[in-house]
Write a structure and sequence with these properties.
The complex is a heterodimer.
Chain A: H1 2-16, H2 20-53, H3 59-69, H4 74-85, H5 100-124, H6 128-136, H7 141-151, H8 153-169, H9 172-178, H10 188-197, H11 201-226
Helix pairs in contact in A: 1-11, 2-5, 2-8, 3-5, 4-5, 4-9, 5-8, 5-9, 6-7, 8-11, 10-11
Chain B: E1 2-11, E2 14-24, E3 29-33, H1 40-47, E4 55-60, E5 63-64, H2 69-72, E6 75-78, H3 89-99, H4 107-117, H5 133-145, E7 151-155, H6 163-180, E8 183-188, H7 191-197, E9 200-205, E10 208-209, E11 217-222, E12 231-235, E13 238-242, E14 249-255, E15 261-263, E16 273-286, E17 289-295, E18 299-305, H8 306-312, E19 319-324, E20 329-331
Parallel strand pairs in B: 3-8, 3-9, 6-7, 7-8
Antiparallel strand pairs in B: 1-2, 1-4, 4-5, 9-10, 11-14, 12-13, 14-20, 15-19, 16-17, 16-19, 17-18
The chains are: A mainly alpha, B alpha+beta.
Chain lengths: 231, 332
């Protein structure tokens, strides 16, 4: 059991001393997760709105695809991306494989169904009278969507939180398309995997604690942004 | 002004509205009455271009109206149980004005003027959670009126209002009509208000315009039986004798108020339906005519003259017997 206590001591020391490697990995993780969450939500939330509010041919099939994609194994996404991004793949010319941008692409693909499915559910949960009232008062598509979004703000905040959680905690696809290259594509999760496998429990634990702290900070920030629960 | 042409609306295969032609003329005040589930709210949502009909079209000013914003901006609907948006009453009242492109400088003046007229001025800085149902309804009406559309549709706008608020609303609507000839269509189950306020009263039953007066309408289940014999239809705690060729099944039962004989005691007659109870109220829809509502197990309205009211001593609380023939009962 000593290694556990040592691990905790080392973790606290690394965090308090501002270790350059821990800091670098944390900043890269934050950058990748924030960019991927932003892209996934920017596409996924409007898609969720459309799925929830518009009647169109194939809507049911689209919902099924989105819900199925929620359970898509991350290693399969990683495998598909390797096929697409490798030099011989259709997107090989962009030389994205084993870059942090490749991890962003993987995270977006994994967070997108979460953003679309959960925002569709959040919008469907809003009383239809809000949309009708906005429309009958002369609001156009965007103002109506904004009005409905304000009513669904708690559900939509949960969408952003869940998407960020997916991006920040992703390991399988990140490892496959990022390659876990020190200083370039090593994120908190891939670093934890590596150091735990190498027996450096303290460093792995320190990085794990940072990961949890990141999730906490982002959640608190989102709660502040949601404002009070006042109607 | 606004027409529904050959409009049918179906939900999950069930037809809830079936109108060959429904017109609202410019400046008209039309009341739609009918029992719950008659299709009043559906009709108003279609007229407000908030739903696409399963069949038929909505026309505005002689042209088919799409559900696009330019057409929608000519019609506003206040729903039966209206919702207020997040934020203060002030923000709610300004919503339609800002959506309609009114300049931000002009919004406060317009919304405050309307708030004063409907007496919601003291509520301007409150939020929806701080309002009663009646207050929410008044705010919703003010929010719709302030955008000054050509057609105003109101679905049971005074269902949660007290007498004073009801009268105030009808006064403001009358002022609006004088000022800018707005077309108003109101769905109501309160017949007294509908009679007093509207120029034109239409009855909706089972999704169709009904060829009967709006009083004494009941949704019933006709028991199967011999079409040549009187059948007995349960209506609440009563059983009403009817003559109909309809097979058994759901239907609307109507008794015209003018077909009901009123007496203080039960008298022997050919009428198959006799019900005793107490007068609950008297309403005068037009000079010389009195609608006497009595609680006889269900509420029934009989139309009598002022002379009959005097001779029989009809007043709230008086004991009465209502009688009508089985053949006077309309089933459709």
């Amino acid at each position: 059991m000593d290694f556990l206590a040592d691990g905790w001591r080392r973790a606290v020391h690394l965090l308090l001393s501002g270790d350059a490697e821990v800091l670098g990995v944390t900043l890269l993780t934050l950058k990748v997760a924030l960019i991927a969450t932003t892209i996934a939500c920017a596409i996924g939330i409007p898609a969720g709105f459309v799925l929830a509010t518009r009647a169109f041919w194939g809507r049911r099939a689209a919902l099924t695809v989105v819900n199925t994609a929620l359970a898509f194994p991350t290693v399969v996404v990683g495998l598909l991306l390797i096929g697409l991004l490798s030099r011989r793949g259709p997107l090989g010319a962009f030389s994205l494989l084993y870059t942090w941008q490749a991890i962003v692409i993987a995270d977006v693909l994994l967070a997108l169904p979460i953003a679309a499915a959960l925002s569709a559910a959040a919008v469907q949960g809003v009383d239809a009278r809000f949309r009708r009232t906005a429309q009958t008062l002369g609001a156009g598509t965007w103002r109506t969507a904004w009005t409905v979004a304000r009513e669904a703000r708690f559900g939509l905040a949960a969408v952003v939180t869940a998407a960020f959680g997916q991006c920040v905690a992703e390991v399988g696809a990140a490892l496959m398309v990022g390659g876990n290259i020190r200083g370039e594509t090593r994120t908190l999760t891939t670093a934890v995997t590596l150091h735990a496998a190498q027996g450096d429990f303290g460093l792995a634990l320190a990085l794990g604690l940072v990961l949890i702290a990141l999730a906490l900070v982002v959640n608190v920030a989102l709660q502040v942004l949601q404002g009070t629960g006042r109607a | 002004m606004l027409e529904l042409r050959g409009v049918r609306q179906r939900y999950e295969g069930r037809t809830v509205l079936d109108l060959d032609h429904f017109v609202l003329d410019r400046g008209a005040t039309v009341a739609i009455v009918g029992p719950n589930g008659a299709g009043k709210s559906t009709l108003l949502r279609l007229a407000a271009l908030l739903e696409a009909p399963s069949e038929g079209e909505v026309w505005i000013d002689g042209r088919p109206a799409s559900r696009s914003r330019p057409y929608r901006r000519r019609v506003t609907l206040v729903e039966q149980r209206p919702v207020l948006f997040r934020g203060t009453v002030r923000k709610n009242l300004g919503y339609g004005l800002l959506a309609g492109g009114v300049s931000r400088d002009a919004v406060p003046g317009r919304l405050e003027a309307m708030a004063r007229r409907l007496d919601v001025h003291p509520l301007l800085d409150r939020r929806r959670s701080e309002l009663s149902e009646g207050e929410i309804q008044r705010v919703a009406v003010a929010r719709a009126l302030v955008v000054e559309t050509d057609v105003l549709l109101l679905d049971e706008p005074v269902s949660s209002a007290d007498r004073a608020a009801t009268q105030q609303l009808f006064r403001v609507l009358a002022e609006e009509r004088e000022r800018r000839s707005v077309t108003v269509c109101l769905a109501s189950h309160q017949l007294e208000d509908a009679y007093r306020w509207s120029d034109d009263l239409r009855v909706l039953a089972d999704g169709r315009l009904a060829p009967v007066t709006p009083e004494n309408l009941f949704r019933v289940d006709i028991p199967p039986g011999d079409p040549e014999a009187a059948r007995h239809v349960p209506v609440g705690p009563l059983t009403i004798a009817v003559v109909t060729e309809r097979p058994g099944g759901p239907a609307i039962l109507a008794v015209a108020p003018s077909d009901i004989f009123v007496s203080r005691e039960r008298v022997m007659s050919s009428a198959r339906n006799h019900f005793s109870g107490q007068v609950s109220r008297l309403v005068r829809p037009r000079p010389g005519l009195v609608h006497v509502t009595a609680e006889v197990g269900i509420e029934l309205v009989a139309a009598v003259t002022e002379e009959a009211v005097r001779e029989l001593g009809l007043m709230p609380g008086a004991a009465v017997t209502y009688a009508f023939k089985a053949s006077a009962v309309r089933i459709f």
